[in-house]
Amino acid sequence: MIEKLRAALANTNVRAFLRVIRAGEGTADEDGYRRQFGGELFTDFSRHPNRAITKTLGDKQLTSTAAGAYQFLGRTWSECQAALNLPDFSPASQDLAAVFLIARRKGLEHIIAGRLEQAIAACANEWASLPGSPYGQPTKTLAQCHAVYKQHGGTYAPAAPIPPGDPAQYSQEGGMPIPALVTALLPSVVAAIPRLAAIFKGGGSEVAERNVAAASAVLDIVTQATGSVNAQAAVEAIQKDPAQLAAATKAVESNWFQLAPADGGGVEGARKAAEAYAMPEGPRFWLNPAFWITLVMLLMPFMLLVDVFYVHPENYSGDLRTQIVTAVLLIIGIAGGYWLGTSYSSARKTDIGVK
Asked: Long-range contacts of range 82-89, CB-CB < 8 Å, 24 or more positions apart?
């Protein structure tokens, strides 16, 4: 194993990724290999300092034994040292141990192949500073990671087409990819809330742009609904906790029109939107924006009719009354046509067995 790790260390992409980790952990400088949690430096490379240090970060007090360029915890270093038979805590040993942890997280193949964001997603549970880390500590952005990676010679794999039917199809349309971290998370959310699959379909640049925005919105909604520190933690929450899944599903349903705009325009587009909005257990019409728009549309004509016939009838001539009544009937006809059309379409779906 150790020979494979040494061979990996010679790879430019691996060296660049190690730099990404160090940039996030605050150990990118020459003294990084001897930095302890909180910034203090140690001088003895014969062993891990394994010293618990308490620091206040923001409004939290954190205690950690993290040390070295990759901020190994004492217990983590013990695992690495035992697995690799490392003689000391020297920079060379630290580099090997870091590659060992990357490989253990299934990220090494991604790095060597130039799939930076997939490697980050794989290693975010190991290093708290990587984007998507679930530990609630400050993280670097993907843009910052890319900048460091490229600065140190990292290269990228050529973009490959997504096979039909692949779950990642949800997150790439018309040449507009969502960042790989989102690509990795979105299929899990769609699997947990299957109704979302209806959003991410179709082709063309306009649909692709909509899908990119919808994917980001879905992850934001689920993250907020579950009270998670980030999207990765939110996905884990809905997979493990039925109550969190229920909260996320409810939040998605409440924001359905934000996620799935009507296809087309006019009455037909609105009908399609209302059909898509219908819940499996029955429509919740009071959450439908079209319901409230219809109420507003009908309220004003109703008030006008009251004024014409009961409040100030003397202010309206016979011709004017006729014109007003005709206009009001037209508005009622439009609203009635919309709602009758929507109900008919829903009934047709039921008749043919669409659930």
From this structure: 83/1, 84/1, 84/2, 84/5, 85/2, 88/45, 88/46, 88/47, 89/45, 89/46, 89/47, 89/48, 89/49
Report how far residue 229's alpha carbon sits from residue 339's, in angstroms, rounded to the nearest whole number: 41
Sequence ranges of the domains in the chain: 2-151, 167-259, 266-351
What is the pLDDT at residue 339? 60
φ and ψ of 173, to 5 deg: -135, 135
The fold for domain 2-151 equals: Lysozyme (1.10.530)
pLDDT in tens, 177-221: 445 566 667 777 888 888 777 776 655 444 455 566 677 778 888
**Burial of 322 by CB count in 10 Å (0-12 exposed, 13-18 middle, 19+ buried)?**
exposed
Tokens 């349309």 — which residue? 173
| Short-list 258, 320, 327, 259, CA closest to 297 | 327
With the CA atoms of 248, 250, 255 and 261 taken in that order, what torsion angle do they form, in degrees rounded to the nearest 10?
100
Q: Tell me which of 3, 25, 275, 314 is the catalytic residue.
A: 25
Clarify whether 173 is annotated catalytic.
no
Counting as low any pLDDT under 50, the low residues of the chain are: 162, 164-178, 204-207, 262-271, 277-283, 344-355
pLDDT of residue 155: 94
DSSP state of 307: I
| pLDDT value for 122 | 92
